[in-house]
Automatic annotation (TrEMBL):
GO terms for molecular function: oxidoreductase activity. Residues 37-314 form the Amine oxidase domain. PANTHER family: FLAVIN MONOAMINE OXIDASE, LYSINE-SPECIFIC HISTONE DEMETHYLASE 2. It comes from the Eukaryota. Transmembrane segments: none annotated. This is Amine oxidase domain-containing protein.
């Protein structure tokens, strides 16, 4: 059950029953091993930047405008009310760009904020996107998934196991760390980097409860959990004294992501992903990103493949405009 929470970055109570057993009532999802390619999971030693490098080798990086926050995307009409085939993108700095087509790749969490208001003076899209698109955005989940990286002066955990599941005995509800539950998942960084460090994953209820909590609060409670799980509160070793550094991811609090990655929850159907993937405004407004992938949502390859699909749509629109 904890693995399912990790996969969907949602509490178990929000995960569909069909993910445990098929009941024949939920729309059949596309084939594939839960969005993964065959084979073991791997670490990219040089980081995800190496995935971008081949895409930027034609000089396109020099044409990317950074630090330009988009505040409005408009469909342009002419004076006669006839649709002009253009999209106008406005940024907070005052920059205005008019284009034949616009590809929207912002995370699902930001899309959820963008469609909250249909007031023409607010919101991101003018006019707003279709009702089907709004329903899709609301139906999909943007999960909470925090990584807590802890470095220690000495190793007190099994050194040869790359992944470690730890369980503590029943904890009183009055315990300050009760919100963490009774099990945690550890990615043992020592096994591949030789650094006395590991990553603790907070997902499900623990992931949600950790949002907006201070680093100090999260660190203290995770360390308390580790102390209870490894040493049963014994005073023979202090996990807290051994901890020399801590870093916590903040994707949920980041206003440009508002969550970790998308996933299915109760009520989500494959047709919602299909609707999110559909273009708007007579094809001029194209949507891409991992959340639009019906097979690989929540993954880097899902985002990459959706980008390839979006590029094909752009070419199709431009060719159509040239013919007209």
């Amino acid at each position: 059950s904890y693995v399912l929470e990790c996969w969907y970055s949602s509490p178990l109570t929000e995960v569909q029953l069909s993910e445990f057993v098929g009941d024949g009532k939920i729309e059949e999802r596309p084939t594939g091993d839960e969005g993964d390619f065959p084979g073991p999971h791997c670490i990219v030693p040089s980081g995800m930047r190496c995935i971008l490098d081949p895409l930027l080798n034609d000089g396109i990086e020099n044409r990317i405008l950074c630090n330009q926050e988009v505040v409005k995307v408009s469909r342009k009409f002419n004076q006669n009310g006839k649709i002009k085939e253009s999209v106008v993108v406005s940024t907070s700095s005052g920059l205005v760009v008019e284009a034949d087509v616009c590809v929207v790749t912002i995370p699902l969490g930001c899309l959820k904020d963008a469609i909250k208001s249909r007031n023409e003076n607010n919101g991101l899209f003018h006019p707003n996107v279709s009702v089907e698109k709004i329903q899709a955005i609301n139906a999909l989940s943007m999960g909470c998934y925090k990584k807590v990286f802890l470095t220690f002066s000495e190793i007190f955990w099994p050194v040869h196991e790359p992944f470690i599941g730890i369980i503590r005995t029943e904890v009183e509800t009055t315990d300050s760390s009760a919100w963490l539950g009774d099990c945690l998942f550890i990615d043992n960084i020592w096994t591949r980097n030789g650094i006395p460090s590991f990553e603790v994953t907070l997902v499900g209820k623990a992931g949600k409860c950790s949002v907006s909590k201070s680093d100090k609060f999260i660190r203290e409670n995770v360390i308390k959990f580790l102390q209870q799980a490894f040493f049963e509160n014994s005073s023979t070793f202090s996990v807290s004294d051994s901890c020399t550094d801590c870093h916590i991811t903040r994707w949920e609090e980041d206003r440009f992501s508002k969550g970790a990655y998308s996933g299915y929850i109760l009520g989500t159907q494959p047709h919602h992903t299909e609707a999110l993937n559909q273009s708007e405004w007579n094809g001029m407004l194209i949507f891409a990103g991992e959340a639009t992938s019906d097979e690989y949502e929540g993954s880097v390859h899902g985002a990459l493949l959706s980008g390839i699909e979006a590029s094909d749509k752009v070419v199709s629109i431009l060719e159509k405009n040239n013919r007209e």
